[in-house]
Structure formats: C-alpha cells, structure tokens
C-alpha cells in the first residue's frame, strides 16, 4: 500500500508531488555521463524484477520496495531509477497511478536518497561488517520513511483517515524488518564481491 | 594495405588476470581471418582492442592509423564489432531500432538508414521480424540480429566474437556463408570461433591465440598440425584429422580435403 | 510476470491505436486528471463510462483489462471499507458502536470510481502502442533525453533479468529451497538479488561497450514525425471535451 492509487489524493498535493519530483529529478540527473546510463538502467531493471518477488509473511505474502538498496547502489541517481521503476509499474501493472506518480516518486525516491546518505556514514565505522550493518540500517530506514510519508499524506486528508494511516504503518512493520535483513545481507555480499558497485565505491562512477 | 595491425598487445584486467602477453599480428584489407584459441585464451579481450574499447600496452593501427583517444569515433565507424553475447548487443526494445541505431548515430539520412536496415535484415534472414522485441526472438535469431546491427553500418572491417556458437548446423553454415559473401564484397573480417570444421568455409587464414599469437598461417597449414592444435586443447576439423592420420600411416599423400564431397572422392580413389 | 506481455494488444489497429501518440497521451492524461479530481459521484461515474467506452473502442479484451485492476483494488478497497465507518456525518445505519455515514459512503464510492477509471485510462495509454512509440512521443514533448534512454534500456532488460531470475529461483528450488517466513528465506533471496544485481552491473558494462561500438556518444537520434492529421485533432477534441465537462460539473 505504499504505491498510492489514482483518485484519492487532492489536487494541490498531486501538484506539489510533481513539482518536487521534477526538482529532484533534475538534481538526480545533473551532469550525468554517457557511461552511467546503461548502469542506471540495468540496476533499475534488476531492482524492478526483485521487487516483483513474493515473500511469504505468515498466511500472506509481500513485495519488497528495495528503495534503500537503490540508494546504496545508485547514490544520487537513485531518484531517477525510482522514478523510472514507478512509472513502469504504474503503466504496466496499474500499481500506483499516473496522477499520483509525483507523490509516489517522492515517497519512495526521497528515502532512497536518505538511505544513500546514511550509508555514507559507514566509512566512520571500523568494522569488517560495516556494509552489512549500514546496509541493513539504510534498507530498513528507507522503507520506514516511505511508510511514514504515505500515512502522513493520508492523515492530511482528514480525521476519517486516522485509522487507515495507522493500519498502513502496522501492516508494513514486518516489511521494514524484512527489507532491513535483505538489504543488509545483499549489501554485505556486494561489498565483498563487487565493492565498486556500491555508491561512492572505489571507482566513484556515481558521483556524490 | 593493412586493415588491422596489432603490435605487442599486453593487457591485464583490474583484478590482475593477465589476458594478453604480447600479441602481434596484421591483417590485409579484404582478408578473412579466423581467431582460434581455448576458453580464456584472450580472444574476446584481443578483439575488444581492435576498436579501442580496451586499451592496454602496445599499438593497434586501423587502415594505417593508430588508435588514439581522439580518433575513437572514426575507428568505430571503420571497425564493426559483434559481441559474443547477443543480449549485450541488442539493447533496444525492438529489432528495427537496434539495427538502425548505428546508421542513425552515423548521421545518415532517413532514407539511407532505411535502406541500410533492410539490407542488413535481408542479409541475415530476419526480414519480417523487425518489429519484434529481443526477448521474443530465439537464440539463433538474436545471434543473427547481433550481426545485423553491425552490418547496417557497412563497416570496412568486421570483428565477430563467436558468431556461430550455440547455433544449429544450418544457421552455422549460413553465418559462414554470410562472412564469405561479405569478404567477397571487400570487407575485412576477423572471427573468433571454436568451430574448427567451419573455419575453412569462412576464412583463408588462421591465428592461434594463447595470450599471444602462437601460430599464424594458411588455414590448411594450421588446422592440419595435430600437435599444435591438440597442444592447445583445440579440435581439428574431422576430415583433416582423418586424412592426417591416413598421411601418418603413409596411406595418403595429397592435399587435405575440408569438404565432404572432395574427401569422398579422395577415399574412393584410395579404395580403387 | 513470467507471461507478462505488455505489447500483446499494441497493434490492433483501432481508432485509439491509430491516434497520434502525442495527441493521445496529452488528451488521455488531461482526462485522467479530470476524473481523478472529479468532485462528486456523478461526474466520476461519467468518467468511468467514458473510460470503459474508450477501452471498448480500443478492442483490447475487457478480461485482459480487468486482470490489471488488481493493484488499484488492493489499494482502494481497504480505504473504501474503512471510510464509511470512520467518516463523521449523517448516520445511515448503525450496528453497536459502528455506524455507517452517508458522507463516508460517498467518499469510498468516489475514490473507487475515480481510481478505477484513471487506471483503465493509464492502461489504454501504454496498451495501444509499442512502448518505444510512447516513450519517444514523450521525449518529443520534453522528457529529458537521459531519462528517455533509462526508460528504453530498463524496459528492454526487465524481461531478460526476469528470465535470469526465474532460472535462479528454479535452480534454488531444485536444491530444495522453499520460501518460508523465516530469516533463512530472507538471506537466501538476498543472495539471489545480489547475484542478479552483479550480473546486471556486469552486463551494463558490456552493453555500454556495444553502444560505443555503434557510435553512441550519449544520445539516441530519433527520426522526425509527421504533423498531426485532422483525425488526430478530432479525437483529441472529443476526449478533451469529455474531460472539460467532467471538470465543469
Ligand atoms: N572483465 C574481466 N575481469 C577480469 N578478468 C577477465 C574479465 N574478462 C575476462 N577475464 C579473464 O581474462 C582471460 C581472457 O578472457 P577472454 O574472455 O578474453 O577469453 P576468450 O578467449 O574470449 O574465452 P572464451 O572462449 O571462453 O570466450 C580469462 O582468464 C578471463 O577469466
Ligand atoms: Mg570470448
């Protein structure tokens, strides 16, 4: 339920979402180099595929959002990646909506940028498992932030949305834990095998 | 004129793997050359040097001009490169866009682009598939599509990395025939391959690579040298293997046949 | 996703398919916004009728379209079920401490109608043309070139990577891996994701080399398109007319 559908949010919020998304897209794509395009596209496609995978939780199953990993891998370019992935989801799976695309990109892309910033702090920790630790923190934090943003937006629509906002947070708490485990394990693995893939890695091809 | 000249190429990957250790060779304009070598011998690495994608120590000259940072786009208009994995090469959502990608980048007029595209699709037997997405094409079709994307740029030099691997026998023959017909029209071609039996159908000369060039010569000369081929773990063409054995047994002394019909005639003569 | 084929109905040749993509995208987007922001039930229902009619005109089978309403419904249904009870207003019906309000019922119907109508139209935008046609039309209308390319390449490789991931999960299954709700499942899938990411990263380097080899220098030239025909403008006028009358209500 973190992808808000069409038909719910009021006009001013939709407009604000598009304006902020446009600004962040500009920031995210600034000074992009030709060699980065293929990387951003393929990593975005891979995260898109991974986000379609079902994780069983008790009797139901959930999809991951993986915006934390997007930030960890793509750094500043993560917002563009999230925007593209969300547009494809809205167009091809009707998951989220076109009118709410701006708001949704913000809800998922802004935490991706925060995750990247949080992940940068790993450099201050002298532990061999620092990528796992910070990856887990960034992954969990990103989803939590997205969920909080969604429920806040719903709350602004009035008293009547109080219960549903709480519900949104409640059902996503297990996802936050799950994302944290997945992001931590994946980041730790990548740090060992392909450290250059992580944002701000040793080749610095995704500039800060 | 020399179309390709490589002098003392040395290359190590960032992880320290030494892939080339002083490879040198040259190819005349209009020649078709096969590059043979076991897995990991550096074939793909060597080919990537020929249009400046990889640059290590040593010199590469194309049409007599050394590849430098400044002439890369000219080099790429001269040397068309077909990659080993067609999914690397087919990066656009439809075949038509992929085949027209090169000509459009060369700044051709729309009419010229269309003509180049339809010629490339015809040459590779892919007419009617241009609107298809790569994931709707069979592996063999994708392999040929990868060739078409380069063909449409009509480069004077073509570099093909295992264009026949994983193809069915007929498609392999078709690719070999295509290579020959391109050569007849004046294209210089270098093809990395593991299909020793096909080599005589598409090339006149063979380079054997094992981090450096270990043998260079006429197809007949190289493919018939059992010790050389077996030493690198390569297989000889079946007929060459057979007739060389007959020669070693002093039963046969003529030229080694590579085609079944000629071989059959020789055997009938022997039996007489 | 394994049988996912978004271009299945992209060449049916209906009036919507033959519509110039630029005119189509703009007009349908205006209509989507008009419906998504409709202030009351009647215009929203009218919008839903227009959307369904357009889907019918497009000849995309309704069963196919209905299958895509899963996500909007997953999002909208909880809202629609909660709001009648949580909205304060005239009580229509009450049961112990729960009471259904007229205003609440109104909102839940309104959101549901608007959401489904808008989703139908979004499906219509992409479903009636190959994706590259749509995305190039967007580029002509101002989508930045870098973003256009990310769209094109990401779309191309989603199918390949999905295939690669299915093969990976199948081989995990063959080794006896079963998805449960436990830590081991999360770790195993995390490793599978990491492998998928590594392969995508390495492929991206090869793809970039292939692009360079064919003269890529950062942009993809697109061939020019003809101007709009009278029929394109006529279709746009009809749809925009519908959009404005929904807005005016
Ligand atoms: N990107 C890379 N990073 C590190 N090592 C590499 C890379 N690509 C190739 N190598 C190594 O370089 C050596 C030569 O590889 P190359 O791909 O050129 O061989 P090849 O002759 O084309 O083999 P094949 O017949 O399997 O295609 C191998 O040992 C390989 O493991
Ligand atoms: Mg190779």
In short:
Chain A is mainly alpha-helical. Chain A contains seven helices and two strands.
Protein described:
- The complex is a heterotrimer of chains A (208), B (272) and C (249).
- Chain A is mainly alpha-helical and 208 residues long.
- Helix content of chain A is 66%, strand content 3%.
- Chain A has a single domain, classed as Arp2/3 complex 21 kDa subunit ARPC3 (Orthogonal Bundle), CATH 1.10.1760.20.
- Chain A is built from 7 helices and 2 strands.
- The longest helix of chain A is centred in the C-terminal third of the chain and has 32 residues, at 162-193.
- The radius of gyration of chain A is 17 Å and the shape is globular.
- Chain A starts with 10 loop residues before the first helix and ends in a 15-residue tail after the last helix.
- Chain B is α/β, with parallel strands linked by helices and 272 residues long.
- Chain B has 2 domains: 2-91 and 155-235, 3-Layer(aba) Sandwich (Rossmann fold), CATH 3.40.50; 237-272, no CATH class.
- In chain B, 40% of the residues lie in helices and 23% in strands.
- Chain B is built from 12 helices and 10 strands.
- In chain B, β1 (2-12) and β2 form a beta hairpin.
- In chain B, α4 (95-105) crosses α5.
- The longest helix of chain B is centred in the middle third of the chain and has 16 residues, at 169-184.
- Chain B is globular.
- Chain C is flat, with a radius of gyration of 23 Å.
- Chain C contains 9 helices and 2 strands; from the N terminus they run ααααββααααα.
- Chain C is mainly alpha-helical.
- Chain C has 2 domains: 21-139 and 226-248, no CATH class; 144-213.
- The two termini of chain C are 40 Å apart.
- Chain C has a two-stranded antiparallel ribbon.
- The complex binds adenosine-5'-triphosphate and magnesium ion.
- Magnesium ion is lined by residues 43-44, 84, 161 of chain B.
- The site of magnesium ion (MG) has 4 residues of chain B, from α1.
